């Protein structure tokens, strides 16, 4: 997994609540057997007009946001389908962090396994971030995972929560499977103990 | 005396392999269900790391999402779907996993065949790379959807890193009125608490109205727990559960059955067990439900009007206005009577025998409206055979509908069964997200009764008018 330490980026505003993973990547893109090329399907139905041409109103298509790594979204981001293709499509596009007031459980789990940082902020911070992106779209925000801090363009900073295990895995780029496999003996002992019942 | 525990807490505690202060708990997984769409990258991960599947005997695979429903042969699938189906065949052969493939009689939607074959049992932890894994909670199992990285974790270690969820009691009291079903119960709950209402929680569905449901109805309720954001939905096992499971191919037999039932009887939540949250719904006040918007929380009783644009806070108003624009529907208008192009009866929510029988009870001796496309897709090949033995296929065909082979089909439109842009569908599936049933398609979620009634009239219809 790609590690996450610090990023500095513009913020892409996506001012919708309940963004579901069918919007992040529609099912027609799920026939792949690897993780490559999924950015092509990212927000396909919002990013493209019915004739297939780019929708100029969608932020990901705007020059301003090319190369931006932070997405700012409404409440309950990533609800619906468990498809990990959603974080693969987002990271494939170059997104490294998403800021919202809440995330759907499965999406959050999937994101953390792909070096994609879900940051939960208060409603007031979310509102001021949306205001900031509107007033100065080119302003940049810093995310420092080690200190769990967002440094906003107006000079203020906000701290965010993350569990210590996920934080360590992200900072060091560790695949969580390694941790599970280290417990092989305990898993075997658990299996053994249940056979005796 | 020990503290009273909930069903969820009992399952959680009995599956903990290891706990630590600086990491999530390691939870043992009893049953891992696998399908073609969310597993290929997990198997690739095993190969790259030189790992084996730890417990092939606890792993069951099927093909359902991208399989054609117009024939049993995969020939009509597109090249990418065929490559994906060939990949799961190879993966299961290489790693020693039982696969219900295209030619298998037991093939079907993963959440339909698990219970049908008796793999799904009370007290088990069950996962699948699919959010509707919550379905299996109807048996008193702890069942939830996972991503592909976690599919790899379970294949390799038969375990998952998990944080304990909070508990949420959803009590359905009273007696269901005529023409109102399990689907209407769960749509009413989601409309009440919202699609994020259960985030971080595991639902336990309790109350007289849950006890009174058959297993098919209980599965419909648990299936859509995820649509309220819950990690899982569970129902305490009882005589209805045991009667369903007894004699299933993979259910315990003989003495093992008696021992299993004795254990299962210990699972229901203890008297006095405390939930973190609770809500009560009086089902006697419910009517058939329909959705008008682009997520499952946007639902109304069929005789009510679509909400006004000034409903809720600014973000909700903006979401409503965006949804109505996509749906090309107007605020404050009734949805009942709105023209419908397609009716889809199927999916892991509503494709079981009782769903098909309910639909057939309305379709029998009637014809679908002019121009209506009715698609009926059984949840498994076993169900298809049983329905055909009961003459349901003939009822569907005589009404002018298409009777298909088993699969996920138009629920997520991966296999060629899809809406055309702008079409309206009344669908018994679980998600009305934008484009879910085909790019530009518009979905109205409802029960099999409401769907069948709407197929006959060509409009969104209260099924009680045809019963």
State Rg of chain B: 21 Å
Q: What is the subunit organization of this protein?
A: heterodimer
Give the strand order of the largest sheet of chain B, numbering strands 1, 2, ... along the chain. Answer: 5-4-3-6-7
For the largest beta-sheet of chain A, the strand count, sense and barrel status come to: 7 strands, mixed
List the helices and strands and how they pair.
The complex is a heterodimer of chains A (197) and B (467).
Chain A: E1 6-14, H1 21-24, H2 44-47, E2 70-73, H3 85-93, E3 97-100, H4 105-112, E4 117-120, H5 123-135, E5 140-144, E6 149-151, E7 157-159, H6 164-172, H7 176-181, H8 184-196
Parallel strand pairs in A: 1-2, 2-3, 3-4
Antiparallel strand pairs in A: 1-5, 5-6, 6-7
Chain B: H1 7-14, E1 16-18, E2 25-28, E3 31-35, H2 40-49, E4 59-62, H3 79-95, E5 98-100, H4 110-116, E6 125-128, E7 142-145, H5 148-157, E8 159-162, E9 166-173, H6 182-193, E10 201-206, H7 208-211, H8 215-223, E11 232-234, H9 239-245, H10 254-264, E12 277-282, E13 289-291, E14 299-301, H11 314-327, E15 342-345, H12 353-363, E16 373-376, H13 381-389, H14 392-398, E17 402-403, E18 424-427, E19 442-445, H15 448-457
Parallel strand pairs in B: 3-4, 3-6, 4-5, 6-7, 9-10, 9-12, 10-11, 15-16, 15-18, 16-17, 18-19
Antiparallel strand pairs in B: 1-2, 2-8, 13-14
Helix pairs in contact in B: 2-5, 6-8, 12-15
Describe this structure in words.
The complex is a heterodimer of chains A (197) and B (467). With 197 residues, chain A is an alpha/beta fold. Chain A has helices at residues 21-24, 44-47, 85-93, 105-112, 123-135, 164-172, 176-181, 184-196; strands at 6-14, 70-73, 97-100, 117-120, 140-144, 149-151, 157-159. In chain A, strands 4-3-2-1-5-6-7 form a 7-stranded mixed sheet. In chain A, strand 3, helix 4 and strand 4 (117-120) form a beta-alpha-beta unit. The model of chain A has no long low-confidence stretch (mean pLDDT 96). Chain B is an alpha/beta fold and 467 residues long. Chain B has a 5-stranded parallel sheet. In chain B, helix 2 links the parallel strand 3 (31-35) and strand 4. Chains A and B meet through helix 4, helix 7 and helix 8 of A and helix 2, helix 3, helix 5, strand 8 and helix 11 of B.
């Amino acid at each position: 997994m790609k590690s996450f330490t610090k990023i500095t980026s513009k913020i892409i505003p996506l001012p919708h609540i309940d963004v579901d993973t069918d919007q992040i990547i529609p099912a027609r893109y799920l026939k792949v057997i690897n993780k490559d090329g999924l950015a092509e399907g990212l927000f396909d139905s919002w990013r493209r007009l019915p004739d297939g041409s780019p929708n100029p109103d969608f932020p990901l298509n705007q020059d301003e946001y090319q190369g931006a790594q932070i997405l700012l979204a409404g409440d309950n981001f990533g609800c619906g389908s468990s498809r990990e293709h959603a974080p693969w499509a987002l990271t494939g596009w170059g997104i490294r962090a998403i800021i919202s007031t809440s995330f759907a459980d499965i999406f959050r789990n999937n994101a953390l396994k792909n070096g994609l940082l879900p940051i939960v902020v208060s409603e007031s911070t979310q509102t001021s971030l949306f205001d900031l992106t509107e007033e100065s779209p080119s302003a940049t925000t810093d995310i420092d995972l080690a200190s769990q801090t967002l440094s906003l363009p107006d000079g203020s900073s906000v701290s965010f929560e993350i569990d210590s295990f996920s934080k360590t895995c992200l900072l060091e780029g560790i695949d969580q499977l390694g941790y599970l496999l280290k417990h092989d003996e305990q898993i075997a002992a658990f299996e053994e103990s249940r056979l005796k019942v | 005396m020990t503290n009273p525990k909930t069903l969820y807490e009992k399952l959680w505690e009995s599956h903990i392999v290891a706990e630590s202060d600086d990491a999530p708990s390691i939870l043992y997984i009893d049953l891992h269900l696998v399908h073609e769409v969310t597993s290929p990258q997990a198997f690739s991960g095993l190969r790259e790391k030189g790992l084996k599947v730890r417990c092939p005997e606890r792993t069951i695979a099927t093909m359902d999402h991208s399989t054609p429903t117009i024939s049993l042969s995969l020939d009509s699938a597109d090249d990418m779907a065929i490559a994906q189906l060939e990949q799961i065949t190879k993966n299961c052969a290489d790693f020693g996993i039982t696969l219900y493939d295209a030619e298998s009689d037991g093939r079907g939607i993963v959440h339909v065949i698990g219970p049908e074959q008796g793999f799904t049992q009370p007290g088990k932890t069950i996962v699948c790379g699919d959010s509707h894994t919550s379905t299996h909670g109807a048996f008193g199992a702890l069942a939830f959807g996972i991503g592909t990285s976690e599919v790899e974790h379970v294949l390799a270690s038969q375990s998952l890193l998990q944080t304990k969820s909070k508990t949420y009691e959803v009590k359905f009291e009273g007696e269901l009125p005529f023409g109102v079903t399990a689907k209407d119960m769960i749509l009413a709950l989601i409309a009440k608490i919202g699609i994020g209402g259960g985030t971080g929680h595991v639902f336990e569905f309790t109350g007289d109205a849950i006890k009174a449901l058959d297993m098919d109805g209980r599965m419909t309720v648990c299936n859509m727990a995820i649509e309220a954001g819950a990690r899982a939905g569970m129902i305490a096992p009882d005589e209805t559960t045991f009667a369903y499971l007894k004699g299933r191919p993979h259910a315990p037999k003989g003495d093992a059955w008696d021992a299993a039932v004795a254990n299962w009887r210990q699972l229901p939540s203890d008297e006095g067990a405390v939930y973190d949250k609770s809500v009560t719904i009086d089902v006697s006040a419910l009517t058939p439900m329909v959705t008008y918007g682009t997520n499952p929380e946007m639902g109304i009783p069929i005789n009510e009007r679509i909400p006004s644009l000034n409903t809720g806070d600014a973000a909700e108003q903006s979401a409503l206005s965006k949804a109505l624009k996509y749906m090309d529907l107007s605020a404050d208008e009734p949805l009942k009577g709105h023209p419908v192009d397609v009716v889809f009866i199927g999916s892991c929510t509503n494709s079981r025998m009782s769903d098909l029988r309910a639909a057939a009870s309305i379709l029998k001796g009637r014809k679908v409206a002019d121009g209506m496309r009715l698609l009926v897709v059984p949840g498994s090949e076993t169900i298809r055979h049983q329905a055909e033995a009961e003459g349901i296929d003939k009822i569907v065909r005589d009404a002018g509908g298409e009777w298909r082979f088993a699969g996920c089909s138009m629920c997520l439109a991966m296999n060629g069964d899809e809406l055309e842009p702008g079409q309206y569908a009344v669908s018994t599936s679980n998600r009305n997200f934008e484009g879910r049933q085909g790019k530009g398609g518009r979905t109205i979620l409802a029960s099999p009764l409401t769907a069948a009634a709407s197929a006959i009239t060509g409009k969104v219809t209260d099924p009680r008018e045809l019963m």
